């Protein structure tokens, strides 16, 4: 097979390829969306601290994209979230060729590569093992639709994050999610009108629980990125209150 391996240039074509692949659980990557317009918007406006050409490698055969892999690099932390590898025929050799080219572009800037793939995506699992990656656990994804939303009610115990919460929030986040894709400092830097952080405080005003969400009103979707309750405060209903608040906020957009 004659392959042409080049840095990403045609964002529209790449977004369409990624969306088509990512709707299949056997190819699915958690970092990547499933709507081509949303992916295109991310690639052109909010993807990586590197240029797109330094962040994505694409394989063409007969002028058609057959494989791609990208790294969403955060230069501040040295962490890169890996989009892919997406390979139509599950060819590990093609994935390796793309990976070798891509790593050269980011090897001096990236300390750690993070993968987030569907449990049915055995191809990427094999790829990660092939490159001596190690598992740090798994995640369950709950999809909730506005039409099926249940109103659990909100509580005055759940309040927006304030500067006085900073130190205890950072401590709880680091304890709950060591080595995760967003550090506590990264979350705080990302806060705005659609990326929101809510907390529950104890009597000493320390954060004993929190939920962090990101909404994308342009595409009518959003994610609860993190929810945590201090170990000593679990089974008191705080997690349910935090989730209820996050769902209510997301559906308010």
TrEMBL record:
PROSITE patterns: GNAT. GO terms for molecular function: acyltransferase activity, transferring groups other than amino-acyl groups. InterPro entries: Acyl_CoA_acyltransferase, GNAT_dom. Residues 156-253 form the N-acetyltransferase domain. It holds the Pfam family Acetyltransf_1. This is N-acetyltransferase domain-containing protein.
């Amino acid at each position: 097979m004659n392959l042409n391996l080049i840095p990403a240039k045609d964002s529209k074509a790449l977004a369409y390829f990624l969306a088509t692949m990512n709707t299949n659980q056997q190819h699915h990557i958690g970092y990547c969306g499933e709507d081509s317009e949303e992916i295109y918007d991310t690639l052109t406006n909010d993807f990586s601290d590197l240029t797109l050409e330094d962040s994505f490698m694409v394989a063409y055969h007969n002028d058609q994209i057959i494989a791609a892999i990208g790294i969403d690099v955060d230069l501040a932390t040295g962490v890169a979230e890996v989009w892919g590898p997406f390979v139509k025929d599950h060819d590990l050799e093609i994935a390796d060729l793309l990976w070798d080219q891509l790593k050269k572009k980011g090897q001096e800037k990236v300390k750690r590569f993070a993968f987030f793939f569907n449990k049915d995506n055995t191809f990427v699992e094999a790829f990660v093992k092939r490159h001596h990656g190690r598992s740090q656990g798994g995640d369950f994804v709950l999809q909730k639709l506005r039409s099926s939303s249940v109103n659990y009610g909100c509580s005055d115990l759940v309040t927006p994050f304030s500067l006085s919460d900073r130190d205890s929030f950072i401590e709880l986040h680091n304890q709950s999610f060591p080595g995760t894709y967003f550090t506590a400092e990264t979350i705080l830097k990302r806060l705005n009108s659609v990326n929101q952080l809510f907390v529950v405080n104890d009597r000493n005003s320390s954060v004993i629980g929190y939920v962090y969400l990101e909404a994308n009103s342009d595409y009518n979707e959003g994610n609860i990125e993190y929810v945590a309750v201090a170990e000593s405060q679990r089974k008191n209903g705080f997690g349910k209150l935090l989730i209820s608040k996050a769902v209510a906020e997301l559906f308010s957009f």
